[in-house]
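Service request form, structural biology core

Requester: graduate student, group of Dr. S.
Request type: structure prediction, single chain
Budget code: on file
Notes: please return the result as structure tokens.

Sequence provided:
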Amino acid sequence: MLSCTLPIVPDLLAAAPAVDMQRIVRAVASSTAIETGQPIQEIELQLQSDCRFPALDLAGPAPG
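Core staff response, request fulfilled:
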């Protein structure tokens, strides 16, 4: 009978901690602030606003 000697690797996605949306916003804001010279707080407020383009609909499944 053959036996596998490879170690069992845990599911890395299941072990990864959930990323907080606030951390994503802060990362994008700080990166943008470095590139543009704007204050981080100002960019964070823009990113957290309800919608920049309220007249546009997001793409969805094709009608059919």
